[in-house]
Amino acid sequence: MKRIKKQIGYFLHILVCIIFSRQFVNGKSIDNSLIQEYQQHLEYDNPASLPKFLSRGQSYRAVIGDTIVLPCVTQDLGRNILLWRRGSSVVTASNLMITRDPRFRLLDEYNLQIKGVRPQDAGDYICQIGDQENRDLVHTVEILVPPTVRAHPETGHVTARKGSTVTLECKASGNPVPSITWVKRELTSESPQLAEGPSLTLEHVERQSSGIYRCIADNGVRDPVSIDMQLVVLYSFLLDPTDRRSMDSRGDRHMLTIRNIQSSDFGNYSCVADNALGRAKKYIEVSGRPGPAQFHSPLYGRSRDVYNLTWSVESVPKLDEIRILYRKLMMNETYQQPGRWHELVLTPPHGRSESAHHFMTYTIRGLEDNSVYEAIVQAKNQYGWNEVSDIYQFYTQSNSLMMGGEEVEMAVQSEFSHGVSIIIRGNLQSVSLSLVIAELLRLSIFS
User: Fold this and answer.
1) Could you tell me whether strands 59-63 and 136-152 are parallel, antiparallel, or unpaired per DSSP bridges?
2) Locate the Ig-like domain: which residues (predicted)?
3) For residue 202, what are the CA distances in angstroms to 155, 238, 346?
4) Strand 89-93 relative to strand 195-196: parallel, antiparallel, unpaired?
5) Residue ranges of the alpha helices (H) in 1-59?
6) What was the pLDDT predicted at 21?
7) Do 9 and 80 have their domain in common?
8) Sign of CA dihedral 19, 21, 25, 28
């Protein structure tokens, strides 16, 4: 009944406004009883107490990915509509969600919840009562972003000559803006703070200046992050034998042996030979970075859509990260076109290793059958990334004809102008005939 009475009052309100605007209806004056009835409904729908906010505007700071709730509690709202706005955009109107972003929803009537906050969610959120005064409740949201840091150059490897000035740089981002500090890594600890800011300048560098310098970024949001940069100072001096260093000659072979190697031993070594006719010099670099990856996988895989890639890396320090890139080769009888690289980042197990030889394997899934792929592997330890490995090719099985495990001899005569005859002998167990032919054609075309 109350709802019906309110609807009647609403229509009477409209009717009286029309009558007041014209003063007469069909040439007759206004009926006093009609006015009195309208006033009764007006008193019913407009109580003496106006709608007001019980919540107060606040500033909220949330870490990216968190969930926040912006309160908007009212009293005596009546038939007024409550809006949530952000700038000129309407987020909600009464209980209706206007935004299509599923992260937004209303809780406990008109409290606005935002899940998985993003940097672009920062700003003012306005809860507004849609009456004649359009009263607002404003909440300000700031999104905190943990720091990230990267080295410049990205390799993190800097080389300088003895006596020169070197500047190491790193770039950090986050909200608030991170503060940056620099320390030098020692064998068992870190040095006191060397500098603050995005760059570290070292003047008149000496041999002892070589080493690992760490850039640390911190803005108070979660844990600080850091990145290491390696400085190698090039210098020349004659090496004298020590308890860790010895030089031996066997005929025309001359060897330098360094025992119990340390980070201070890293650098470029030159072997100089002199006689009456002149001088010759050759260089070799000694580094703590991992050696290039060596592949041990079979050329032909045993599955149509997966392949077990196996490799080994030489590294005295433990490995911190492995990066695998692979791509498919588009091939036919006349050309081969590489596809897009796919990148995988792996964290090696940190178990205790008695050897510097690290043997690893990874199963690549989601491959296409009867296809040729290329892969490269790169490894990183505390001294930086190694050189990218040579490109390694492998093959997936075909879904069609498969050959057995018997001894197979196959000869293919190329029809191309230069004419190449290729003979393959051996046990080609579980190898796709079409893949073998494709490889033979590739060798005959591109050799």
Assistant:
1) parallel
2) 51-138, 147-228
3) 19, 25, 34
4) unpaired
5) 2-22, 32-45
6) 35
7) no
8) positive
As a whole number of Å, the CA-based R_g of the chain is 38
Query: Which residue type occupies 200?
Result: L
With a cut of 90, say whether residue 201 has pLDDT above it.
yes
Sign of the torsion formed by the C-alpha atoms of 413, 419, 425 and 428: negative
Domain contains 264 = yes
Are 313 and 291 in contact, with CB atoms under 8 Å apart?
A: yes
One-letter amino acid of 29: S
- Give the phi and the psi of residue 27 in degrees, each rounded to 5: 80, 5
Q: Which two tokens stand for residue 381?
A: 């330890």
Q: Can you tell me whether residue 358 is helix, strand or coil? A: strand
Report the SS3 class of residue 299.
Answer: coil
Whole-angstrom distance, CA of residue 171 vs CA of residue 216:
10
Residue with tokens 């591109």: 446
- CB distance 432 to 337 below 8 Å: no
The whole-chain average pLDDT of the chain stands at 79
Find the range with the poorest average confidence among 6-20, 64-78, 241-255: 6-20
> 10 Å Cβ neighbour count for 103?
13
Shared domain for 357 and 435, answered yes or no, is: no
Q: Would you state the torsion angle of the CA atoms of residues 184, 186, 191, 193, taken in this order, to the nearest 10 degrees? A: 20
Whether residues 190 and 141 share a domain: the answer is: no
Shared-domain flag, residues 58 and 40? no
**Residue 240 falls within a domain, yes or no?**
no
Domain carrying residue 61: 53-145
Report d(CA 300, CA 285) in Å as an integer: 36
Helix/strand/coil (H, E, C) string of 120-149? HHCEEEEEEECCCCCCEEEEEEEEEEEEEE
Do 64 and 146 form a contact (C-beta atoms < 8 A)?
Answer: yes
Q: What's the pLDDT band for 447 if we cut at 50, 70, 90? A: very low
Closest CA to 160 of 198, 215, 189, 200: 200
Per-residue confidence (pLDDT) for residue 427, from 0 to 100: 42
